[in-house]
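Hi there,

I know you've been waiting on this one. I reran it after we fixed the sequence typo, so this is the corrected version. Both the input and the resulting structure follow.
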Amino acid sequence: MKYFHPLVLILAMCIFAAAQGQERDGDLVQFSGVVVTNDSLIPLPYTTVIIKNTSRGTISDYYGFFSFVARVNDTIQFSAVGFKKTTFVIPDTLNENRYSIIQMMSRDTVQLRETVIYPWPSKEQFKEAFLKMRLPDDDMARAKRNLARAEMKARGKAMPMDGSMNFKNAMQTEYTRVYHAGQLPPNNLLNPLAWASFIKAWKNGEFKRKEYDKDE
């Protein structure tokens, strides 16, 4: 019975492994390309490009370009949000160790169920809010409210000045005195604003009302 020297066996195993490695390296392909939309040929950025049933792959850049190492006969899967998934099989009849494609993606329309958003987290809170809800006023209620505001405004004009208004008037008088200190006071006969105020008061009949109050 013949025995082989251990060095011969080790040498044979190394040659066999190197041959298999060369055969596997010959299957490697630099797979690259551009992903675009099929309707307008616009580059599709950030598309997931992976080898199917594996975790190896890449993502296309902003311009839709991708490139990674794969093997012949690998099934490449392309997926992007809003587009249908597509696959491509790298052919085994390549003459070079690189392959490039332009992969087109079709838009995928997804019909979502209607979702109604309520401002209340539960039916009990909705019931409570509904019972406490104030209905909008009708035309009659709005008219009465407006009349009440007009009446309060008229009463406010007839009422004498309160403390805050007296203080404001006193401060305005003091400011006018300090502003014109050392010079002649302005003549209101030449002041158009004073004349406008006088004419407005005269048209409103304020002078007649004051004379009538004095006679009483």
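Quick highlight: The mean pLDDT is 78.

Best,
R. S.
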